[in-house]
Design a protein that fits this description.
- The chain is an alpha+beta fold and 989 residues long.
- The chain contains 43 helices and 18 strands.
- The strands form five sheets. Strands 5-4-3-2-10 form a five-stranded antiparallel β-sheet, covered by helices on one side. It has a five-stranded parallel β-sheet with strand order 12-13-14-11-15, with helices on both faces.
- A hairpin with a 2-residue loop joins strand 4 and strand 5.
- 53% of the residues are buried.
- The N terminus is likely disordered.
């Protein structure tokens, strides 16, 4: 298969959408006039410049996918001539087999991007069964409508760590940029502190135009276990939490994108990083990988570049000032000293500065640590201290590389210059996993001999001496240790015997912070609450891992895990919660004296994690039952409510709607008897949906409408940590489904869109996945809005992989197949069948009748009667067993269509009339109209129905006339045909 740099295949179904090129790569070119030698193909207000791969509309760049742009170029070049499907696929995907659906989707994308002035004549016309042709008149010239192609900014996701301008690396950066373009997998190797990360960032910025999907920076220095390589990459991509197969989640996050992945500081996890990188490179040749390490990864794909230290003057070399500054090491030293203390190099210091750079082996990190020390030493005194320090300190094995020893000596020298109190503070601060504030440092010191004023003074001095990096975030000054400094200080902490106390103090500080979380979610806005607590997630993980690693600290580890639960749930970290809470419960298993409230919290969190797992087995029911008992024994009204509601959700997921009603009656009794009105709306919303499933559409619609009116303000909704779903979002997602089936398509689409946008606004993936899977996707498909459904599906798949919301995995695959079928892809039926089988096997049976009957309809459309029969039998069986009366009219409708296909027309008509009658009885007017359209269509060819017009007119009047409803459109067409036939009969008489 030939690799085309920059091309990304756009797949249908559950694959990610195509990366865009025109409008990103082309847009970033410097502002310049299009050369007169370049051929421009113009139509209406559009200009297409094939050589530049650039499409302009009225002079402004138009964003078009790479494949779609190839297709457009070929069609426009042919200027009205027929271009076969085979020609287009061969041109856009050379030497690559792709399904025809890829072409259809790209054609559809072009039509959306290039709306024709005449809606009846799109720019790209379909020639059925043969191909496509371009309809607009094409003008050929060398001038575009607007002569200037503007600058655009880099992609919004190109967020790289800030770094000062690097010195002396221009040649390296240029060579590495070229090498990366050729190999797509480059590892920069070199000794510690040589500047590998800084060079990698410079290369990334220069190469960004080749990666229009953006640059993702993964700092592997923050992990200490090879097993955490995948989680670190997934977290940087926003695909974390997929504990069952993180690598698959990473692949899905990167699929069909041209992204540059920077894997920084790989030396301590070389083997694991190599395995992951090889896997990504073999499956995703379009991405770029730029790694930094002290040794090669030894991958079959990588190109290795050894980054040498900065050049410095040789000993005995006599140089003038300007000649000395031409050496990058000297230039770097002088620049950093100038920034720190305003130092300027004069001729008298040239020899000493050159000696310092030699002594530091040209290692940039060592130079940058040493240069600010001119605040307390002159150049010659600094050199003498470096000489003394390196001679009488020896760290690491004697056979370690000299430069490695030089770096450690420099760190040790910096440490030795500190006062006793400064050194103590530096050692203590090494326990922080990320950035921290001065208040955090004070809290960490606790009741040690350090006074608050002393600590503040020490932190300021450490920052001034470049041992702490300082930055402002959200208006607050925050500090962090560079990783080399952190590692050195942590080793000093161990040597001083202070590590156990410091780690315990760190765990206590983190516990104190997170024990406020459960209280704060009651009054803080979700976005504000998440921002406050998510910033400390790495410190939380470090504290939990340390505390649960030994029996002596397991107690605080269990408390930390319980305190972390609101954050994991608030951030939808479903997979992480399941793993960590499960580990904590295992540690707590043999502890008879464990606080019952703590055990209750852990049990309930684990029950939720199991409820969102892909397999809903008996363990989830048992855990909810245990949680309820623990809550009752603890006398906790709050956790009795949570346990009853969560258990009801599990039973709803598994199709046990009668049991849901029993749980919610107990829930409502607590709300009433214990005066807990704030919890009432969540129970009412779930009760309304249970009533809907059991056939009470009118009652459910009235209750949900009232709830939506009561909770109309998104900004005042309560936190989601109590019942897992955002109330504002959940109410509207429920209302959308009921509204559509009752015939109000416009309202259904409107509230579904509000539910999705509300979930996106608060960044809660569980609420978003729920709104997409149970409302937005089915409503879009019922409304015939396939493009909208594809957008929703992509969002659902992203949420599922990012947070390991396993319960929605088969659901996303089902909708992928349904969309494939709607686009004319015959394989969609098999995708849907596989998903329905997975839903049945996983016991995720809620709405299974709907999924099965939809499969049956698709199979019938594809003349696969056996599959249709199996699907409708499964739907009918589960609808009766689960008491899901809401979709029985649809079950009967599809059953009637199967009977008609088998030739039993009378039985089919009776079944279709039964479907209409049942739909009318429960108020499912959209389903009644759908069944009536099917009945009238089939009877037209066999003598017609005497009451057809009356039946259709009555049902058309029952549904919304303004909403997108394909069945309504079809009904009006049938009425027109019936009226015409009646007029002809009257005329014939």
């Amino acid at each position: 298969m030939q690799l085309h740099v920059g091309d990304v295949t756009l797949e249908t179904g559950n694959q990610a959408s195509e990366a865009t090129t025109s409008g990103t790569l082309a847009d970033r070119q410097a502002a310049e006039r299009v050369s007169c030698g370049e051929r421009v193909l113009s139509f209406d207000d559009y200009d297409l410049v094939p050589q530049r791969r650039l499409l302009l509309h009225a002079g402004s760049p138009v964003r078009v996918g790479t494949r779609a742009l190839d297709i457009l170029c070929l069609l426009v070049e042919q200027r009205g001539e027929l271009v076969s499907k085979e020609q287009l696929m061969s041109f856009a995907w050379p030497d690559t087999y792709v399904h025809e659906s890829n072409l259809k989707v790209n054609i559809a994308a072009l039509r959306r991007t290039l709306p024709s002035p005449n809606p009846q004549l799109p720019y790209i016309a379909t020639v059925p069964g043969r191909g496509y042709r371009f309809t607009a008149q094409v003008r050929i010239g060398t001038e575009v409508s607007a002569a200037v192609v503007p600058h655009l900014t880099l992609p919004s996701d190109l967020v790289l760590p800030a770094s000062p301008a690097i010195i002396g690396r221009d040649d390296d950066v240029a060579a590495l940029t070229k090498s990366l373009a050729l190999s797509r997998f480059l590892t920069i190797v070199g000794p510690a502190g040589v500047g590998k990360t800084a060079v990698a960032l410079a290369v990334a910025r220069r190469a960004a135009e080749r990666f229009d999907g953006g640059v993702v920076f993964v700092d592997l220095s923050t992990i200490g276990d090879p097993r955490l390589v995948c989680p670190a990459i997934a977290s940087a991509l926003g695909a974390g939490g997929h504990a069952s197969d993180l690598l698959a989640g990473i692949v899905e996050a990167l699929r069909h994108q041209r992204r540059l992945l920077i894997l920084d500081n790989c030396e301590h996890v070389v083997c694991a990083t190599c395995v992951v990188a090889d896997h990504l490179r073999s499956l995703l040749p379009e991405i770029g990988i730029l790694a930094t390490s002290r040794e090669p990864l030894r991958s079959q794909y990588e190109s290795v570049h050894s980054l040498a230290p900065l050049a410095y003057p040789h000993e005995g070399q006599s140089l003038g000032r300007d000649a000395a500054l031409a050496f990058p090491a000297v230039a770097l030293f002088v620049a950093r000293a100038n920034e720190a203390v305003g130092y300027e190099l004069d001729q008298a210091d040239v020899a000493a500065v050159a000696a310092i750079c030699r002594r530091l082996d040209g290692i940039p990190l060592a130079i940058e640590l040493a240069a600010p020390r001119l605040a307390s030493h002159d150049v010659r005194g600094l050199f003498e201290r470096l000489e003394q320090s390196f001679e009488w300190l020896n760290y690491g094995p004697r056979n370690a590389p000299a430069r490695h020893q030089a770096l450690l000596a420099t760190l040790d020298w910096s440490y030795r210059l500190l006062s006793d109190r400064e050194a103590m503070v530096l050692r203590l601060l090494s326990v922080f996993a990320g950035s921290f504030s001065l208040e955090d440092a004070v809290g960490l010191a606790g009741d040690s001999q350090l006074l608050d004023a002393d600590l503040a003074w020490c932190v300021g001095n450490l920052a001034a001496k470049s041992l702490l990096a300082a930055s402002f975030a959200d208006g607050q000054l925050r500090y962090r240790l560079l990783e080399a400094t952190r590692s050195y200080a942590a080793e000093r902490l161990r040597q001083a015997g202070e590590e156990p106390w410091a780690l315990m103090r760190h765990a206590e500080l983190v516990l104190q912070f997170f024990e406020r979380a459960e209280h704060d979610w009651r009054w803080r806005l979700p976005s504000d609450w998440s921002a406050v607590y998510a910033a400390r997630l790495n410190d939380l993980r470090k504290a939990v891992d340390w505390a649960l690693s030994a029996p002596s600290t397991a107690g605080i580890g269990l408390r930390l895990t319980a305190a972390a639960i609101p954050l994991w749930e608030g951030l939808s970290l479903v997979g992480e919660s399941r793993l960590r809470v499960g580990r904590a419960l295992a540690c707590a298993h043999d502890l008879d004296d464990l606080d019952p409230v703590l055990r209750m919290k852990l049990s309930l969190a684990y029950a939720w994690a199991l409820t969102f797992a892909e397999q809903l087995g008996p363990q989830a029911d048992e855990t909810w039952r245990d949680s309820l008992v623990l809550a009752e024994n603890a006398g906790s009204v709050e956790y009795r409510l949570r346990a009853l509601w969560g258990w009801a959700v599990l039973q709803s997921f598994t199709g046990r709607h009668s049991q849901v009603q029993a749980r919610l009656e107990a829930f409502a009794a607590i709300v009433r008897d214990e005066d807990e009105p704030d919890a009432g709306p969540d129970g009412e919303r779930l009760a309304a949906m249970t009533a809907f499933y059991r056939g009470d559409l009118d009652g459910a619609y009235a209750r949900l409408g009232a709830l939506a009116r009561e909770h109309r303000e998104a900004g005042h909704r309560p936190g989601i940590a109590r019942f897992q779903l955002d109330r504002f979002v959940a109410i509207r997602a429920s209302l959308a489904t009921v509204a559509w089936i009752r015939g109000d398509a416009a309202q259904a689409r409107r509230v579904a869109a509000v539910a999705v946008s509300g979930a996106v606004e608060i960044g809660h993936d569980v609420s978003l996945a729920n709104a997409l899977a149970l409302a937005a996707l089915p409503v879009a498909l019922w409304s015939g809005q396939i493009d909208e459904a594809q957008t929703h599906l992509a969002a659902l798949i992203e949420s599922h992989h990012r947070r390991d919301i396993g319960v929605f995995g088969p659901v996303s695959r089902f909708f992928a197949g349904a969309i494939q079928h709607a686009l004319g892809d015959a394989d969609g039926v098999d995708v849907m069948r596989s998903a329905v089988e997975a839903l049945t096997a996983s016991n995720f049976l809620g709405r299974l009748p709907y999924y099965a009957l939809t499969l049956a309809q698709a199979a019938l459309d594809s003349d696969r009667t056996e599959v249709a029969l199996a699907g409708i039998n499964l739907a009918q069986d589960h609808a009766l067993r689960q008491d899901e009366q809401w979709c029985m009219p649809e079950v009967l409708r599809v059953l009637g269509l199967i009977q008609w296909r088998e030739g039993d027309h009378d039985k089919a008509e009776a079944t279709l009339r039964q479907a209409i009658g049942l739909a009318e009885a429960v108020g499912a007017w959209a389903f009644a109209l759908k069944a009536a359209v099917c009945l009238v269509e089939r009877r037209r060819g066999t003598g017609g129905l005497p009451d057809a017009a009356v039946l259709l007119r009555d049902l058309c009047a029952r549904v919304d006339q303004d909403g997108a409803n394909p069945d309504l459109t079809q009904a009006f067409a049938l009425l027109g045909a019936l009226d015409g036939a009646l007029a002809r009969q009257v005329a014939a008489r």
